[in-house]
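Hi R.,

Here are the chain sequences for the assembly we discussed:
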Amino acid sequence: MEELILDCNATLRPLVEELKEKIIEALNLEEMTPADIDADDALFGDGDGLGLDSIDALELIVLMEKEYGIKLANPAEGKEIFKSIRTIAEYVSSHRTK
Amino acid sequence: MNNNIVITGEGIICAIGQDKQSVLDSLQHKHSGIGTMQLLNSCHKELPVGEVPLSNDDMRNQLGVRDTLINRTTLMGMLAVRQALEDAGIQCDTVKEKPIRVVLISGTTVAGMDITEDLFDQLSHSDAALQCLRYHSAGASTRLIAEYFDIFAEHTTISTACSSAANALMLGVRMLIAGEADVVVAGGAEALSLFHLNGFRSLMILDHEPCRPFDATRAGLNLGEGAAFLVMETEEGAKRRGITPHAYLTGYGNACDAFHQTASSDNGEGAYLAMTEALQMAGLKPSDIQYVNAHGTGTSNNDLSESMALKRVFGENMPLISSTKSFTGHTTSASGSIESVICLLALQHQFVPANLGWSQAIDGGIVPTLGEDHYHLEHVVCNSFGFGGNDTSLVFSLSRNDRLEIGNDAPRVIKELARVEITSEDQLAEIRDYVKPLEARRMGKIMKSSLLSSLKALRQAGIEQPDAIITGTALGCLENSELLLRQMVEEGETMLKPTYFMQSTHNTISSNIAIRLGCHGYNITYTQDQASFDWAMRDAELLLKSGKCKTVLVGCHDESTPFYRQLMQRLGYDEIPSVNSKAIVLSCGK
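And here is the predicted structure of the full complex:
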């Protein structure tokens, strides 16, 4: 079982790295590099996370459509998907159309 | 001195009617003006809108205007002002003969964007297309309306997004009370444009069905367009002219939610403060109000937040409430005056307009009225809330306010406590001393220069929070507006960046400062081309002299882009700086 999870992480790794770069660019996270964001960091909410807000969520929705052909009709759908870079990567890998 | 301000004329044009009578008929017969897009040249025909069913040519013909660069916002403004002047018995010829000071105050944001967006891809090579920039700004729209009538001693423009027209009415009252005008014609105008239709679409707050304000199933707003202007004067002035007042504007409240650029706070703090202030000025208790024309856009966020604020203000004494955006669509900058005219019609004809489309209450929300054909109305409240949390409430009454309190007239000396100017992009690096990189992630040049100059000036003055923030800007967030226009031209009306839009209104600057400081006080933005700063300063002095505020942060902020500089050069204008900010802290003592 453990091996399977590791395996899964390994497959996702390139996508995780790609997402980090694209998100830094789309959200204009000045002075941040991919190394500064952990794949499991909470993206939204106060406290330890990155502290993104509703406008960032809308930018992520645009990014999903532009880069991966994933259309989200309702911002509420983003809530679960945009928890962390890893949850985004998982969603993208199973729903992407390009 | 009698400081009661009366309304003596109204003009209105919107999706449900092109004059007061037709608007009244539609309201009383519950005929909504929201429907399929006919005139706006957008690919998003699936989005219902509240259009005025007249082409620009129709309006030009009605007005006898030949210039085809005069945009739709301005044309609708002219039509509404003409009606209002007629209604108030003001003949343009007699104004010129008699020395009465008539001031025009308009609220708009979109202004000439409909024509600019249409010609945008030709601007770089066509000198004919380039001329549209002379008509583009919000200030130009008001100037053109003023020139058309040629009776106005002064004119100015307020741009606080969707509360612009309400703030124009508020300024009118303040100028009349201060004796700076004999008659004020105030209101707002806003045409539909691809720019803001797509902007709101990028924020995912447009409903694909007719909007349902305050309904549990609401899914956003429908955009509308229109214009409305009110003629206001002192009660004595109207008496001298032999005019019977239609109603009194007895109270106003202006506050800033200081929460987020495009969302209202959960407890509706700004809305609560605006309503409370307005009632206090009118000398009324919550139980004196029979009807509230809510801002009620139909978005998930607004209607819940406004419900919270209404419950905090009215508690057990909840008046009838409806959002007439279910008739007109959200007419953005013009909504404050359009809905004020609707309130005046309700007062004069003793009925309550319906909240169309409502069937199911929001959990924790207010329950709106489905309309009352006959209802005793004495005092009504009109709510207008804008992006950046620029919230304004107005109180209209059938009777005068005998308790009206005006600040004492003791002379006050205004002192400048600090002044900071930013004239080059190199200076912007200093923002790091004040704001974390993550917090500055969306800030364009003008946002950084306005915030930095303001924070430095306040620090120099030793003030943490001013009582009021007043901003002047000729063009607002020019860079983001240009980026959105370019993206729309190059990529089409899809997948546009919400960041560009949420930072494209003129008042983004002032509310960014308020959000940073947590400042809920008076917050307003003037945009009158080269006179923007003068109007901001004038308002600051009015405010300080009235005794309402002790410290005011006044700013003037503008920016330009290489593309814009090139265009302005071709039009023969002087070199425009890339960024230019001036922040001043004023205070007063006796």
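Chain B is about 35% helix and 20% strand. The interface with chain A takes residues 202-204, 260-263, 437-438, 440-442, 495-499, 502 of chain B (CB under 8 Å).

Let me know if anything looks off.

Best,
T.
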